[in-house]
Amino acid sequence: MEVKIITQGDDLASRIVQMFENVIHQGHGSLALVFLIGIIFGGIIQYTRVDKFEKIAGFSMLKDTIVPKMLFLAVGLTSIALYFMIEAGWAHYHVKPILWQGLVIGGTIFGISMAIMGKCPGTGPVSIAEGRIDVLIGAIGGLLGGLVFTVYYDDLFKPLMGESLGKLTLPEFFPGNEHLVVLIFGVAVTLVAILIPKVEMFDEADLSKLPDDQRPDRE
């Protein structure tokens, strides 16, 4: 049986095919490089233990600061590195338009969901690989939610996005000083990561690995 892939059109099958084609032709590098980056990313996630419920839920309750320290450090360092890689022609990015209404609604739903599940899209797959069924159920729900969003985008969700303010980046507000702005921003965010006090929320598995004199639940 001959299978024909339709890459034009607005039906669901065409949109799915177009999604994969867009990713394939964006020049992300070889599969081996992407695989290697994935291994490194997963290793960092497990080393910092931010795939645990206590880390993200603890951050939401201001009882754990590992996640914000990691995020601020990553944003600070990569903002500098990525900007100069783009300037050198070694990388590229796609700036998305600012849709305030959609950002507020989506950000609120996203934040509430992270607090309830104690996971984010980056740490979720790592938890699934560890065999956590609750996260797998959440991932299935996320896929179904994405399907609903795709199917009903034009009729239901697009009007909720609000008016577009265009594609803006921070350096554009300081013409002629783009390099300096990126450096100041990156260094400032990195310093924030360093200055945030380290506070951790442990689960029983973590506590069992600590000596009795270092267990916060026995102080």
List the helices and strands and how they pair.
Layout: H1 12-24, H2 31-48, H3 53-60, H4 66-87, H5 100-117, H6 124-129, H7 133-151, H8 153-161, H9 178-195, H10 204-207
Helix pairs in contact: 3-5, 4-9, 7-8
InterPro entries: Sulf_transp_TsuA/YedE
Keywords: Membrane, Transmembrane, Transmembrane helix
Pfam families: Sulf_transp
Description of the molecule:
The protein is mostly helical. The protein has three domains: 21-50; 52-92 and 170-198; 96-168, no CATH class. The protein has helices spanning 12-24, 31-48, 53-60, 66-87, 100-117, 124-129, 133-151, 153-161, 178-195, 204-207. The chain is globular and about 65 Å long. The N and C termini lie far apart (69 Å).
| SS content category | mainly alpha
- In terms of per-residue confidence, which ranges show pLDDT below 50 for 5 or more consecutive residues? 1-5
The count of strands amounts to 0
Number of helices: 10
Characteristics of this structure?
219 residues, mainly alpha, 3 domains, 62% helix, disordered N terminus, membrane, transmembrane helix, transmembrane
Quick overview:
The protein is mostly helical and 219 residues long.
